[in-house]
Amino acid sequence: MNVRGRIAALLEVLGVYVAGQFLITLLIPVLGLQITNPLQNITTAEISDAELLAATRHFFLLLVAQYAGWFLLIIPINWWHRRRGFAAYGLTRAGRSWQTLLVSALPRAALVGWPAVGVNLVDTVYDLGPTVPWRQALFDTSWRRWEFWLFMAVASYAFIPFVEEWFYRGYVQRRLAEDWGDGPAIVGTSLLFVFAHGQYLILNAYNISLIVGLLMLAVGFGVVFAWTRSLIPVMVGHAIINMPMTPFWQCVILAASLVGAVIVARRAAVVVKDVFSRASVMACVVLGIAGIAWAIVSQRIDAVKYLAVIMVVVAVGLHVIERRRLLTCARRDMLAS
Fold this sequence. Notes:
Helix content: over 70%
Radius of gyration: 21 Å
Shape: globular
Distance between the termini: 27 Å
Number of helices: 12
Mean pLDDT: 89
Largest sheet: none
C-alpha cells in the first residue's frame, strides 16, 4: 500500500473540488464577466418565457464557469502527473461500438434509477415534504413551453449529465481509483456527489428518500464506469433519469425499470462483486466520510477555499517526491544491471 500516493490523491481531489471554484471567482472579474445564479430568482410558477430564457443563459454560463474552474486545474495536473489524454477521463468508447454502449445504458439506468423515479411518483400522490423554492416552482410551472424544455436541457437532462459525469466519475473516481482502488473510489465519489447537491439536504421524507435514491444511482453509475471505462453509458443513463416526467410517464418508466432491474440483477451482482472484490472496508469508510464531510463543509465555510489551495499544492509536492523516488530507483536498477 502506497500511503503517500493515497494521501496525494485524496488531497488533490478534495483540494481541486474547492480550489477550482475559488480560481474561477478570481478569473471572472478579470475577464469582465458577470455571472449570477438564476435559481435564486425562480420562486414562483408564474415565470415568464422571457425570464426562462434569461435564466437558461445565465445558468449555462454559471455551469460553464464552474466546470471550467475545475478543469483548469485538473487537466494540467493530470497531464503532468500521468501524461494521459481525454480517454483517461472516460471520454472514449473503450473499444466498444456506439450501439453496444447506448443499448447497454438502458438496463443499467433501469437497475439503479427506479428508486429516484419511485420517490418522485409517490410525492405526486402524497406530499412527502417541501423542497427548495426553485425546484417547486419548476414542478408547478407550465411544461407546454419550449422555453421550459430548453431550460431543463441545460439544468437537468442534457448538459448536466455530461459535465457531472465527466467531473465526478471521469476525474474524481478515476483519480481516487488510481491509488485507492475502484471500490473505495466509488464510495467516496458517490457520497461527495450526493452531498454536493445542497438542494436535497432538507430533513423531510421527500429529500431523505431522494438522497437514498441518488446514492444508489451514483454507486450504480460508478460501478458501470469502473466496469466499462467509458462514460457514455452513464451519461445516457443519467440523462434518462433526469428527464422531466408527468405522473403517467413516471409510472411507465418505473414499471419498465423494475422489469429491467429483475432481468439484469444477476449479471449486475456479478459485476458489483468483481468491482468491489479487492476493496478494503476501512478504505471505503475513510473516503466515504471524507466525501460527506468535505461536501458539507465546503458549502458552509467560505474560508476553506484557502485550505483547498494548500491541499492542491501539497498534493503536487507529494507527486514530485514520488516521481523523484521512482526515478532514483530506476537509475539504481540500471546501474545494478
